Amino acid sequence: MFRQIDGEGASDTDAAELREIALGFRRLLMTYRFGLDEMMTKVTILREEFRHIHDYTPIEHIGSRMKSFESILAKANRRGIPLRPDAVRDSLTDIAGVRITCSFVTDIYRMRDLLIGQRDVTLLQEKDYIAEPKANGYKSLHLILSVPVYLSDRIEQVVVEVQLRTIAMDFWASLEHKIYYKYDREIPPHLTAALAAAATEAATLDATMQRIHSEVQELARDGDAAGAAGSGGSDAPVRAGAPIIATIVEPPSDLGHRTVAL
Ligand code: GTP
Ligand code: MG
Question: What's CA 152's distance to the chain center, in Å?
Answer without folding.
Answer: 27
